[in-house]
Amino acid sequence: MSNCGVTFALAEAGSAVDTDTGELTVQPYFAPVCRLDNGALAAIEVQLRGPEGGPLASADALKRAARAMDAKRELDALAWRVARREQSVRLPMLVSMDVGSLAAIDSATEEQLRRDIVVVTEAALVDSPARTLASIDKARRDGKVVAVDDVGRRPQSMTLLPLIEPDVIILAETMVSTRPDVSTARTAHAVSAQVERTGAVVVASGVDTALHRSRALGLGATYGVGELYPAAQSTEELPADAAEVMPPFPTWSTPASALESPYAIAAAGKIATRSTKRLLVAMSTSLEMQAASAGPETLILGTFQRAEHFTPTTRARWVSMAEQISYAGVYGVGMGYVQEGGIVHAPIDPADSLVEEWNVVVLGPHFCGVLAAIDLHRGEADADREFDYVMSYDRATVVRCARAILARF
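^ thats the sequence. predicted structure below, dont judge the formating
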């Protein structure tokens, strides 16, 4: 239910807003997701559209309006119900929804669960990382397939890929609607790296013409959705005789990190090195420099034990680095929930074992690394404080360390 009193109901095309009840009637459409090489139907995207010829006639326009009216969860739930009622369809059903809507969707039988694909957007991770990761973990435990939408529109969308390990990567419309440039190439490289690591399926959106189809194939997409494959108001109108189901899911494989500490994850099976804070500062600075040059899709996280350890000098380095990457987060006892200078700050609970650790985690599409250290509470001068530390460049380890930090905030 929205705060402004607008609700949604299914109706025939051409319906309008009921000014007495505030009810907006919407029409469900079923957009075919087809193989780009032979046109075979592989999945169906559920779309809700407003009155034909009106400002909400497209699915994207209706989503934007629902979000502005604080009614997106209701719209997402309605789209989910549309997918659930199509019990005779044996193809995967893609339902795009905000992460905040995941808790409201229902469970289903094992047979139905093999078809459900939940599509999430990149904004969710930046706005609320812990809630996003927890919601996606639950969706996976419930047997649902996870996709990330709008990949390539902003660098932040690539930041999601290694953290979520989506089964399906949906390229933004701009990837095929505009001539390739350096930004397109960066996205193509990042997506290619993710596909090589996990076997994720790539779907191009906005495939409206033969030229778009050719560009999508050039970007490595296997499937496409758009006006080249017209949507229908009934699944019975789709060309089922050429159906070819998408590959089996899931593709993700990185173990869950729960609330383990990054040091516990990175140090497992390794012999730690003992050093003073002076060396760790230099090593952290070196890792930060690599993050700054790793590309705009990069994420960096730092746990500094206490707020006073995030010194003005360190802050200046991080502000400069934050201008060149997608996400920078710093954490410590005494820090407030604030975003300034492009850096997200959050407090560590004094009782959390993370207080004893010094961690720097860098995660990008082509470079990753973690410096994880634990305070031994030795050394009188601050620069001579002793730590045991480990380094790792193993991607699965780095991803788990990043999740372990983000899951707390």
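The two ends are 27 Å apart (CA to CA).
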